[in-house]
Amino acid sequence: MITIAKITAGQEFTEFCRHDAGRLYGFLVSAGAHPHEVEDALQETLVAMWLRRDKIENLRAYAYTTARNALARVRTSQIEEPVDWIDAQFSMVDPQRAEAHEQVLALIGTLPRLQQQVMALTYDGYAPTEIAELLGSDANTVRVTLHKARRKLRVQIPGRPDGLSGDEPTEPSSPPRSGP
Fold this sequence. Notes:
The protein is 58% helix and 0% strand. With 180 residues, the chain is mostly helical.
């Protein structure tokens, strides 16, 4: 007989930390936060999640909403300048992959705030309906925002396959008409 063990709130929290905390970190970075702000907001978020773990229905949605709010609080309460920060998390990552990831984040960072958030979550593998839930928005709004963000990024990507650098128009221009 196979018995299915019930997953406790503590186990779900542990799994979230193991698999999704890095994504949450990336989400905060894509919102334009400095590493010290991300650490503070992430710590505040994880503490709040742990304290309310038995009452949270959707852990992922709660995490992103709480992180966004925690980042706003951290930014408004900044008093002193941060000390140099070293990210040990990326010290063991393949340098080429890390460089590509940094380039993607830099491009996403050029977008308006909502487009940054939607693109970052899309980059992390979330579907528009999930993003809508995480951001407290409508799925159609997320899809439109995603379309606009992709269109803006498309012209900024260096070495695009179509040979455009981003400065040229994406539509071919029509030859001038000669009069009859």
